Amino acid sequence: MLALLCACNSVKPIHVSNFEQGFRSKTLEDVLRLDRRSRLVDIGAYNLMPNHFHLLLRESTAGGITSFMRKFGTAYTMYFNIRYKRTGVLFEGTFKAKHVGTGSYFERVFNYIHANHAELYEPEWKKGVIRNRTQVKKKLAQYRYSSLSDYCGSARPESLIVNKGAILQLLETPPRLDELLDDARTFARYDDDL
């Protein structure tokens, strides 16, 4: 999915033949080096969970979000079906989208996306049950399938997936791990649609 976040984010069509036997012959770093000057969207945040994912996107071209999500969903479904020798749809229905303006709501969505994988370590975190806050914060920052470490950690190849500059302009304060869980938990209580 990390490779597809990058490969599908182009106005140019992609085809498995572009990758010589598919993604298996390419490393994630190879895919991240693809020319992406004509992006469909700016990816501001992502969190890939075992059974769902969250993306914070801003259109770079008209209809970019729909085009990106169509390419991304189709490509991942094809990959998954080939890998697990299955057929048919993978996702139930179309993707859910919600307009997120700027300001405090934007910051809360940003934090919620980045804290969402806390449920892997503390299933009741949204209810305020966190047994070892230090350990959860450490695991949040180390989770490879979230863009949180791109904002709060050291540089890594996956940092090329997000347009960090565009997002930091919209945040009143840069993300801080100390406030992330509290802010995201508060938001989760008021917005069950995420």
Question: Would you kindly provide a written description of the structure presented here, covering whatever features stand out?
Answer:
Strand 1 (41-48) and strand 2 form a beta hairpin. The protein has helices at residues 2-7, 28-32, 64-83, 104-115, 133-142, 148-152, 164-168, 177-190, and strands at residues 41-48, 53-59. The chain is mostly helical. The model has no long low-confidence stretch (mean pLDDT 83). Strands 1-2 form a two-stranded antiparallel ribbon. It starts with a helix and ends with a helix. The protein has two domains: 2-42 and 55-83, no CATH class; 104-190, no CATH class. Helix 4 packs across helix 8. The chain is globular, with a radius of gyration of 17 Å.
Structure summary:
With 194 residues, this protein is mainly alpha-helical. It has helices spanning 2-7, 28-32, 64-83, 104-115, 133-142, 148-152, 164-168, 177-190; strands at 41-48, 53-59.
Name some characteristics of this structure.
single chain, 194 residues, mainly alpha, 2 domains, two-stranded antiparallel ribbon, 8% strand, globular
